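debug: dumping io for the single-chain case to check the tokenizer round-trip. Nothing else runs in this session.
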Amino acid sequence: MKKHLVIAVLDTAISLLICVLLFGCTKAKAEAQLPKANTEAVTPQTAVDYDLSNMNFTMISSFFFQMLLEPEKYENKVFKIKGKFQSFENEENPSALPYFSVIMNDVTMCCQEGIDFVWEGNHNWPDDYPAQDQEITIVGKYIVTETDGITYSYILASDILL
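debug: decoded output
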């Protein structure tokens, strides 16, 4: 009886050890995945607070979800985000500018995550904008507005890098 108990305990301990070795996340790995404040100047007046441009899809999805839960924590912070440029027709007002987004895909290309942006300055649509699905990196402030009780957030892009 004791022999079976010892074997069961050892078997469980070995299984746990294998799980920790295979799936364990060290503090260094976890911290490496978190967005880091970037002090690299984008313009003389602007520094990046959150650089999401090198994150994987899962981390970006989690971060965007956190931004939706606590928008005040991220409001007016400067973000750097890399993805594909997308424009969407403004169905309520077809003569207005389309909506612009930067879209990220997961590895299997089945799931997408994205955020809208408005490009600061005077830019002519479509001449000055990237091509549909072109890889871009936007840098800008996270803006949160409310209209008729509906909260809307977007990036006010100071720069679009191709």
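debug: round-trip ok. The chain is about 30% helix and 35% strand.
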